[in-house]
């Protein structure tokens, strides 16, 4: 066997797809030099035959070890023959404390367990956790109480909301106001942009999909007045000389993230200073929050303080460049730093407390108002390798490899998303702790989550440091384990799971999502066949949500008016020839969409149709699909031209900065959104006429 053959064998054993199929259906093979670079980042050196042999032996030993957690299906026997002898005595302690003794059968199988949960199994001197999963995630039928739900909701970029007193960034109070208003219209839920924790010491970074941690929250979205009282906020603004700047930031059409972040953090520090004086009736609640947050919260707050210290004194924004003694959360040096900077660390805990309590209020308001789902959180595909989550969970992440996508029809050079991924072996060795705690954090104050790039449950395109986007490889993940854990946490929280399955989807993956009760996602602008014909409503699947667009795509009005092409021309992202081709394609697509709308009871082809009429017709069209949930983006409800994010740009397009034109409790009162919600509700009616 040649070295290249041994290399491919090692890559396959490590879960790397040596051969793969691209977006155009063509077979591809990962180059040997790319395999070596990816394997090196996985701590599996492969530069020589000896290294390859050693790495293969390391994988063999790892795979033969009994992990601290095993996942299994409810009601199915479980094969333990690889680890225990037939007839071995065991003791099973269920999560509720009930104990049961027995023996493995003649094939060393554990008898079926009917109760989902995290149970403890002891066999001889060994003890491990059994994560027993229900067959499916919690469905919209269970949440709505209807066997064939036809729900609808809104999707909103939370930062884009505004209300008087928000300081220039959408916050939880603005979201709560919108929840009350949408609930009166009959909305089942509101899907929001990611609220993951960013870097308080680096206010230039604000993309919600490139967070520092997916375990905690972006404190800039907190509404301290809803927790501490508006009078306390006004007093702090006046005392800090922030009142004029606060009002200036609120008047801006685009968010000035650095200025707004500086003002918000100054306000939070003033409020914390006052809170520390004592006598506040919420002191015990804060103390309880911090205690319950445990090690994870403490580590995040320590990271925030350490990160700010290194930025301020050394200009270092990445923990991997810190003094080695500070690179590990459990080190004596970190503990010493924490003692010296206790006040700073407490401040960051205080800021997290405010936003958590604000989100709790909002979700409680949604449920109290009758929403069967309430908030639908957005879970980003990864976190920054130089951020809090990567620092605190180093054993379970791959901070040096970057998640992205291989070249496809829309991105000929591929994509790099600038975030890190979990380590498949790290997860297994540590009982999937980092994955479970992430799910719990994001389900804690929501009735559902949308998993960005849900294909990451099976595989991720990972790019070595300094490599081009195309020079990566697919790394496979323990899909069965991850889906079982997802179903178990969905069941425990009574929450729906939505999966963003757009782009290059592995063959057979969507049926697996449906089998697990994970709703896929279908976008109107993508629902075309190879001939450019748009699928009619009755052809849409019943196991995926339906929506008009996403944050990375043009709004319906923008698509109709070719605003996305205008932007790409203006920024010289496409040349004249490509622009002309794009406009010709768009002309054909507009005609094809009009035909689909006309066939489905919309305006006839010979009727004049402007963008407002198009949106109305599209809303009716989406409502008529068999999708159990239709999400209408707020930009389309309002008929706006501009999209939230233009992929391939950073500063040249105002990504993640646009604010909506009205205050959050007035957004649905204007004639256009009121009309569209009425159309959507009518289209969602069951044959019996009842609005669900």
From TrEMBL:
One of its GO terms (molecular function) is 4-alpha-glucanotransferase activity. It comes from the Bacteria. Signal peptide: none annotated. It is an enzyme of class 2 (transferase). Its EC number is 2.4.1.25. Pfam families: Glyco_hydro_77 (PF02446). The keyword Acetylation does not apply. Keywords: Carbohydrate metabolism, Glycosyltransferase, Transferase. It catalyses: Transfers a segment of a (1->4)-alpha-D-glucan to a new position in an acceptor, which may be glucose or a (1->4)-alpha-D-glucan. The keyword Ubl conjugation does not apply. Belongs to the disproportionating enzyme family. This is 4-alpha-glucanotransferase.
């Amino acid at each position: 066997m040649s070295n290249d053959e041994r290399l491919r064998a090692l890559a396959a054993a490590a879960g790397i797809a040596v051969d793969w199929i691209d977006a155009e259906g063509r077979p591809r093979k990962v180059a040997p030099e790319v395999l070596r670079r990816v394997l090196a980042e996985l701590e599996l050196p492969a530069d020589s035959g000896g290294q390859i042999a050693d790495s293969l032996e390391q994988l063999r030993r790892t795979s033969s070890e009994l992990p601290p957690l095993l996942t299994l299906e409810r009601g199915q026997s479980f094969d333990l023959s690889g680890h225990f002898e037939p007839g071995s005595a065991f003791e099973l302690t269920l999560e509720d404390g009930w104990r049961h003794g027995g023996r493995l059968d003649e094939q060393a199988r554990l008898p079926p367990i009917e109760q989902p949960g995290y149970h403890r199994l002891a066999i001889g001197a060994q003890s491990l956790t059994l994560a027993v999963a229900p067959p499916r995630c919690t469905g919209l039928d269970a949440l709505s109480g209807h066997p064939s739900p036809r729900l609808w909701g809104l999707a909103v970029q939370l930062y884009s909301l505004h209300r008087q007193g928000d300081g220039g960034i959408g916050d939880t109070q603005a979201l709560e106001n919108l929840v009350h208003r949408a609930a009166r219209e009959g909305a089942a839920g509101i899907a929001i942009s990611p609220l993951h924790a960013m870097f308080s010491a680096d206010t230039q970074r604000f993309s919600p999909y490139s967070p520092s941690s997916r375990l905690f929250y972006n404190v800039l979205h907190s509404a301290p007045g809803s927790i501490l009282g508006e009078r306390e906020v006004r007093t702090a603004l006046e005392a800090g000389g922030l009142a004029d700047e606060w009002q200036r930031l609120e008047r801006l059409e685009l968010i000035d993230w650095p200025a707004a972040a500086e003002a918000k953090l100054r306000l939070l520090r003033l409020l914390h200073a006052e809170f520390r004086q004592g006598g506040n009736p919420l002191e015990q609640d804060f103390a309880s929050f911090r205690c319950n947050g445990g090690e994870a919260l403490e580590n995040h707050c320590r990271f925030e303080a350490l990160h700010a210290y290194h930025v301020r004194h050394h200009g270092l924004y990445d923990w991997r460049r810190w003094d080695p003694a500070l690179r590990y959360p459990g080190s004596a040096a970190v503990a010493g730093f924490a003692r010296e900077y206790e006040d700073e660390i407490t401040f960051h805990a205080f800021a997290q407390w405010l936003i958590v309590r604000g989100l709790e209020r909002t979700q409680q308001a949604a449920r109290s108002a009758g929403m069967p789902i309430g908030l639908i959180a957005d879970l980003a595909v990864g976190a920054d390798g130089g951020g809090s989550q990567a620092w605190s969970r180093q054993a379970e992440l791959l901070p040096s490899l970057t998640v992205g996508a291989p070249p496809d029809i829309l991105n000929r050079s591929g994509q790099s998303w600038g975030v890190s991924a979990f380590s498949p072996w790290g997860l297994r060795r540590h009982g999937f702790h980092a994955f479970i705690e992430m799910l719990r954090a994001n389900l804690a104050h929501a009735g559902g989550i949308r998993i960005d790039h849900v294909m990451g449950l099976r595989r991720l395109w990972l790019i070595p440091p300094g490599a081009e986007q195309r020079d990566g490889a697919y790394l496979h993940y323990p899909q069965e384990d991850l889906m079982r854990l997802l179903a178990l946490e969905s069941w425990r929280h009574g929450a729906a799971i939505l999966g963003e399955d757009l782009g290059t989807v592995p063959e057979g993956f969507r049926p697996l999502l449906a089998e697990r009760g994970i709703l896929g996602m279908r976008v109107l602008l993508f629902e075309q066949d190879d001939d450019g014909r748009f699928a009619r409503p009755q052809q849409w699947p019943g196991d995926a949500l339906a929506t008009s667009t996403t944050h990375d795509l043009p709004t319906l009005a923008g698509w109709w008016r070719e605003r996305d092409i205008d932007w790409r021309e203006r920024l010289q992202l496409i040349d004249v020839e490509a622009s002309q081709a794009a406009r010709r394609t768009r002309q054909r697509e507009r005609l094809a969409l009009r035909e689909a709308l006309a066939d489905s009871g919309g305006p006839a082809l010979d009727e004049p149709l402007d963008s407002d009429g198009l949106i109305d017709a599209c809303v009716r069209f989406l409502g008529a699909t068999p999708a159990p949930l239709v999400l209408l983006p707020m930009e389309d409800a309002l008929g706006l031209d501009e999209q939230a994010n233009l992929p391939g740009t950073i500063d040249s397009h105002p990504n993640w900065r646009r604010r909506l034109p009205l205050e959050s409790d007035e957004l649905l009162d204007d004639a256009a959104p009121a009309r569209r919600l009425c159309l959507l509700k009518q289209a969602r009616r069951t044959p019996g006429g009842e609005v669900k």
